[in-house]
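Hi V.,

Quick status before I head out on leave. The structure for the redesign project is tokenized and pasted below; the design run finished overnight.
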């Protein structure tokens, strides 16, 4: 496979995963915003959503107020935001057009349909209209996942999945980090009513509410949510699951292409380090520091993948 095609496929995976995550984040924040008591709590919810996806400074530069409508539009539809769902789908479609010969017809049609459903939209609307738009995007991204799952387990599939899991790990780490250090208002008691609403929102973002109940059979506790999203490999969006699948996919690609190197070493090292710790040790040494290291390691693996498979 040409390196250019491999890069296209890898970025399709990243952009489609980013589009889905951002859509779910907007949905969960809309629900949390409706439960907020007062303008300050509502504003904090939307500002934290921008911080999760690293768009707080860009949005501030737009000089718009952090209202539900403005932030929802920025996250979903803004052409000025390169990480909006609209932008991600446009980038994914551009990459898919360049790599159509390596993809199934169903995968291409899923990406194209997702883009067509958004291309003429300029406003998310309010209330139910915004939720309807979100439901449309969620259905489109699920359609892509379904098409991807039916592809042959060969290089095209592996590169798209690799992009997805690298993006997924980054998103989960940033989400947990923001929740602990930015979302909870100063003076609010951990375990209080607002805190439970916020942790429920976090679980909704990563489709993990039922998973939490099944795995822990306990009332909502922040440290158990962190354990779920970091260590439970049976949870598809956990850091452990992303680490394990990254190692597996790089092994498959290495066996097929003969290209093994720094990306494999870094991915295996990260998986070993995660297996050698637990949630108690992380809290003692600092959750924020742990997540910051994970995000940096994930970026290093991304760069090593680009070099190893000559994406540059």
């Amino acid at each position: 496979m040409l390196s250019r095609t491999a890069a296209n496929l890898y970025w399709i995976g990243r952009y489609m995963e980013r589009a889905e995550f951002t859509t779910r984040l907007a949905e969960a924040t809309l629900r949390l915003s409706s439960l907020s008591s007062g303008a300050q709590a509502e504003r904090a919810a939307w500002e934290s959503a921008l911080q999760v996806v690293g768009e707080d400074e860009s949005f501030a530069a737009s000089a718009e107020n952090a209202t539900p409508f403005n932030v929802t539009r920025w996250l979903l539809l803004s052409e000025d935001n390169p990480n909006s769902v609209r932008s991600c789908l446009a980038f994914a479609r551009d990459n898919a057009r360049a790599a159509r010969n390596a993809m199934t017809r169903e995968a291409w049609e899923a990406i194209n349909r997702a883009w067509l459903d958004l291309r003429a939209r300029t406003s998310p609307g309010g209330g139910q209209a915004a939720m309807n738009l979100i439901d449309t995007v969620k259905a489109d991204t699920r359609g892509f996942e379904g098409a991807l799952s039916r592809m042959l387990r060969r290089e095209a599939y592996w590169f798209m999945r690799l992009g997805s899991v690298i993006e997924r790990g980054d998103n989960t780490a940033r989400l947990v980090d923001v929740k602990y250090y930015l979302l909870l208002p100063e003076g609010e008691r951990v375990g209080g009513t607002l805190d439970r609403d916020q942790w429920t929102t976090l679980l909704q973002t990563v489709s993990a509410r039922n998973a939490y109940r099944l795995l822990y059979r306990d009332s909502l506790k922040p440290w158990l949510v962190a354990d779920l999203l970091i260590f439970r490999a049976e949870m598809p969006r956990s850091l452990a699951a992303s680490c394990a699948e990254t190692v597996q996919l790089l092994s498959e690609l290495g066996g097929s292409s003969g290209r093994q190197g720094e990306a494999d070493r870094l991915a295996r090292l990260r998986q070993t380090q995660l297996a050698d710790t637990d949630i108690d040790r992380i809290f003692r040494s600092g959750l924020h520091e742990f997540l910051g290291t994970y995000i940096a390691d994930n970026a290093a693996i991304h760069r090593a993948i680009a070099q190893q498979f000559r994406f540059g």
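Above is the designed sequence. The chain has 15 helices and no strands.

G. will cover questions while I'm gone.

Best,
W.
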